[in-house]
Amino acid sequence: MLLLLAILGCGEIVAAQEKAARPNILFIMSDDHAYQAISAYGSKVNQTPNIDRLAKEGMRFDRCFVTNSICGPARAVILTGKYSHLNGFTTNNNRFNGAQQTVAKLLQAGGYQTAMIGKWHLVTDPTGFDHWSVLQGQGPYYNPGMKTPAGVVKHTGYTTDIITDQALEWLEKNRDTKKPFLLMYQHKAPHRNWQPPPRYLDKYKDVKIPEPANLLDDYKGRGTPARENQMSIAKHLSPNDLKLVPQQGTNPEQRAALTKAYEEENKRFAEAKLQGDDLTRWNYQRYVKDYLRCVDAVDDNVGRVLKYLDDSGLAKNTIVIYTSDQGWYLGEHGWYDKRWMYEESFRTPLIVRWPGKIKPGSVNKDLVMNLDFPETFLEIAGLPIPADMQGCSIVPVLQGQTPDNWRKSVYYHYYEFPQPHHVHPHYGVRTEKHKLIHFYTINEWELYDLEKDPSEMQSRYMDPAYEQIVADLKRQLEELRKQYKDDGKVAEFDELTPKP
User: Fold this and answer.
1) What are the strands, taking DSSP E only, across 171-215?
2) What pLDDT digit, counting tens, does each position of 139-160 carry?
3) Above pLDDT 90, what percent of the chain?
4) 3-class state of residue 127 by DSSP
5) Region 412-486: CATH code
6) Which of 359, 368, 393, 409 has CA 20 to 30 A from 66's CA?
7) What does the buried/exposed string (b/e) look like for 109-130 if buried means 16 or more CB atoms within 10 Å of the residue's CB?
8) Pairing verdict, β 434-439 and 368-369
């Protein structure tokens, strides 16, 4: 019998999957992977054939957004289905309360075997997982220690490959073949400081990567926050980021290979004594090439996992989801990093393959969010969605049946300030055509017309022609803050602990 789920505010009543045929869920999440660096999204800088395969065989989402564009908080949202102020994890300085309700616990209780392998970045130990092996903190690019219930296990090699080795080992040797599974397979790459794998140290060496049109942005069209940022390619990349100093966390052989890869270019750079725009352009090429080399390693490893699913026969009944914890800047506005509600960091890639359910090669432009992921997992599994989760299952969207009353706007709230990067706290609303941002600690507002100004170069907040649009968006913003119970308070750790 089908289990019927009514999801308040998320569309019509939908039918969940029959338990007898419940699919496996493989959730692949990279860290800081810009949609601009995926060829399925039209990348002008690289090719990602294995991630592209998922798009060809599944659905690409062009309007997937995050609630809070920063690593730890994004992960907490995906586990809880709640905004940061309710799950208690607003910045990377917090500790996740593992005693609270999570999608892993709900799936585990509902008969799924659960595993978490790779980057965790929530400080406390994972809960709700039958198996876990996670990086310590951010984790290094080489020779990671992986924390497990039995202690820290030291590995030698390239972290992206090692995380995949562990995921494949679990799939092949440790999973219970009588149960469906949730595997959260999560990469450190391509997070800062972008150390490439040995096999790609020379890739792109003789290539000039195209620059974004606004690499040399002067921020004249925006307010104080954009001008005060500390994440510019011109000024804020460190010698370590740029590989101008020996790389730490490597053994002698690895360090020698890294040094050799950069030493000739570094010598020419030192002799050139570049300044101004020339220096910015050099920094951009060095930064973006290393970033893309790390992305290439992620794509390789996605290919390894897809091949295993094919060879083992698991592909037929496994939903594969590829996403990132948020978007990222590849030189747009002269930046690296994320945090802003501007499009490049607010929007994240999302590609889903579900054999027999999703039309291959389909593209979706509905407004979806990382807030929706856990509800989607639960509906896929045929399990009830708790009423206190705030997102909407995208199962009907995946099947080409977007409800008529699907959301028309998304809400965002960023907190971490002043360091790192000096991005002022802000919240805002985005609709299909416009975006209103409130930097509330300094009471500055910005409005963008996304049709006429997709790169968000000129705020129209003070333009009389947009007066009515501003009024309408402010009303929507207040409604969303009430809907998501964002009254300025953040749940404390004790408040989140379930009472006996």
Assistant:
1) 181-186
2) 999 999 999 999 999 999 999 9
3) 94
4) coil
5) 3.30.1120
6) 359
7) eeebbbbbbbbbbbeeebbbbb
8) unpaired
3.40.1370.10, 3.20.20.150, 3.40.720.10, 3.30.70.270: CATH of 24-195+290-402: 3.40.720.10
**Dist CA 119 CA 133 (whole Å):** 9
Instruction: Give me Rg for the CA atoms of the chain.
Output: 22
Question: Residue 8 — very low, low, confident or very high, per pLDDT cuts 50/70/90?
Answer: very low
* Cα distance between residue 36 and residue 52, in whole Å: 13
Burial of 2 (0-12, 13-18, 19+ CB in 10 A): exposed
Q: What is the per-residue DSSP string for 246-279?
A: PPSS--HHHHHHHHHHHHHHHHHHHHHT--HHHH
Encode pLDDT of 380-410 as tens digits.
Answer: 999 999 999 999 999 999 999 999 999 999 9
Give residue limits of the domains in the chain: 24-195+290-402, 204-213+231-286, 412-486
pLDDT of residue 449: 98
Q: In Å, how far are 113, 175, 392, 406, 481 from 178, measured between CA atoms?
A: 9, 9, 29, 36, 43
- pLDDT tens sequence across 195-218: 999 999 999 999 999 999 999 999
What tokens appear for 131 in the block? 């198996």
